[in-house]
Write a structure and sequence with these properties.
The complex is a heterodimer of chains A (151) and B (107). Helices cover 29% and strands 34% of the residues of chain A. Chain A has four helices and seven strands. In chain A, strand 2 and strand 3 form a beta hairpin. In chain A, helix 1 crosses helix 2. By secondary structure, chain B is mainly alpha-helical. Chain B has a two-stranded antiparallel ribbon. In chain B, helix 1 packs antiparallel against helix 4. Chain B starts with a helix and ends with a helix. The chains are: A alpha+beta (151), B mainly alpha (107).
Chain lengths: 151, 107
């Protein structure tokens, strides 16, 4: 069995039967993120320089914080990322998350998430590796069926 | 467009391509030249296999300067898991997987 060292640039992508506008909405509104992003509520004006916050489902705890670097609806969103849900990750440097949305043929769009600048954040790198996979498959299921993933 | 799953199953149905995924699992963000150096295969052959993996969404590529870097994208495998494993076989599969591990470790 080989072990995986957490990568400092991670790339995840998924094809979704939805328009770029629908995907953008799913990324930027708390009503949507609560259904596929570990119940979390996104909170931002999505203007460069503004905060990117993500709250626990009861709004009692800040789970992730960061700053918006780029926002070009509905094709590109880039923000810094610090995971506050875990003490060790919270003590690490900010990393960066970039969402890219490309329209494709037949009403199918491609969503790519690149999580980089993880060189100084090994705990974060290890903890998000499985997480993005879960988040993206949940987002696809939600947009294509209108239902959150079971379990 | 075919069912997303078709391309993934087809891409996984080849030992060289599974080997390439294992190499990327260990460390990704690699160039064609790096991947080629670990395989007994022509550059063209490796390129063809990477293309099949990319079409199935199992490999994502990014440009970094003049280089094209290859990343393992595990999301399609997760989707197959959600579709085929979660649904009705998880308990039986894990029991069999444990049995296999146990037998192979003691052998």
């Amino acid at each position: 069995m080989t072990t995986m060292t957490a990568q400092t640039t991670q790339v995840y992508s998924v094809f979704i039967r939805a328009t770029p506008e629908q995907i953008w909405e799913a990324i930027t509104t708390p009503e949507f993120t609560s259904k596929y992003f570990y119940g979390s509520l996104v909170d931002s004006t999505f203007e460069p320089g503004s905060k990117y916050n993500s709250w626990s489902s009861d709004r009692s705890q800040l789970m992730v914080d960061g700053v918006i670097e780029e926002a070009e609806a509905p094709t590109k969103l880039s923000h810094t990322w610090r995971a506050l849900y875990d003490e060790e990750s919270a003590a690490e440097e900010y990393s960066r998350v970039t969402w890219e949305i490309e329209a494709g043929d037949g009403g199918v769009s491609k969503l790519t998430v690149v999580h980089d600048r993880l060189e100084a954040s090994p705990k974060t790198a290890a903890s998000v590796a499985g997480g993005w996979m879960y988040v993206l498959s949940g987002l696809k299921t939600l947009l294509e069926t209108g239902k959150p993933l079971a379990g | 467009m075919t069912d997303d799953g078709d391309l993934v199953f087809r891409a996984l149905a080849d030992p060289t391509r599974r080997h390439l995924l294992d190499r990327l699992y260990e460390r990704d963000g690699r160039t064609l030249t790096e991947l080629e150096s670990e395989l007994e295969m022509t550059r063209f052959g490796v390129m063809k296999h990477l293309r099949v993996l990319e079409d199935a969404g199992l490999v994502a590529t990014r440009r970094s300067g003049r280089e094209k870097l290859h990343f393992l994208n595990p999301v399609p495998i997760r989707l197959i898991h959600d579709r085929w494993i979660d649904k009705y076989t998880e308990r039986r599969v894990s029991a069999l997987a444990e049995l296999k591990t146990e037998l192979e470790e003691t052998a």
